[in-house]
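Revision sheet: structure tokens.
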Amino acid sequence: MSSRGSPEPHSSQYILTPSFITNGMEVSGDATRVWKYDGLTQMYVTNAIALYIIRLAMPNQETLYQVADRIATITLNRPDKLNAWTAIMEREVRSAVEEAERDENVRVIVLTGAGRGFCAGADMSLLSTVAEKGLDAARRAQAVQQTGSGSDGVRDDFRQKYSYFPAMTKPVIAAINGPVVGLGLVIALYCDIRFASDAARFGTAFSRRGLIAEYGMAWMLPRLVGHANALDLLLSARMIDAAEALRMGLANQVYPRDTFMEKVREYAMDLASNVSPRSMRIIKRQVYEAMFETLTVSFERSEQEMLASLQCADFKEGVAHFVEKRTPVFTGK
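Predicted:
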């Protein structure tokens, strides 16, 4: 099991150095340059000399990150503020999700909150400042930040400020342990699966703050709960309990608070241990792409993917472990 208070990805310093021992790597000599770098530790070989970029780790300020049993757990960690969302938390969550995506030892990502809340929405101190003084250039840029486009097959819809969870190849589970409101609900909507504690309460909040359906919620929420329920939740901004969220389809399952994380972990471990990572990756992409496709296009895509799956190693393992009545050993290939 590994855990960290992760470095701040946009401000950490990295040292480029030839050979000395650190973290099990052989490196020596003095540091020659200090670089800014956003990735994990990497090795380069130049003129037959191994050069390493070493991240100078700094603890996370507002999140926790832990990997165990092929499950990466990201915990929003401002329990005294019901994990109200900040710019620091935003950067740390994005960094942690991307790290989990890169890590071959991770097959499932769980996002939850410390203490008695999941996320109470945007930090009220920020909202109060904006209400009093207005938006300066920096806050305006932060509020509407774009992530740009790329050539890796991910559509621009899932490159936006908070809509990037569907672009991850691994399932992302929101473990909603308590109140989830406003921006916190936006984050939960973009997760693939939402499990709720019976102590959880859900609310959009925006209309009661003089705001609007933020960050694509008007698009995503109706796809989960239907047109009428989405309008109800957005227009009234009323709070609903976990039982009503389950009836609407906003929550996949509701568990007692005393055993909540145990149940979430049980589900995540089943995915990590008994399901092909390749199948999860392809199926997730199929489902999100189908939101923009006709039935004909989706059908034809599934035929192509089916033929490809019949030739992969995980298909062979899927048949073999069933016939041999043993635990599967999927590789994701």
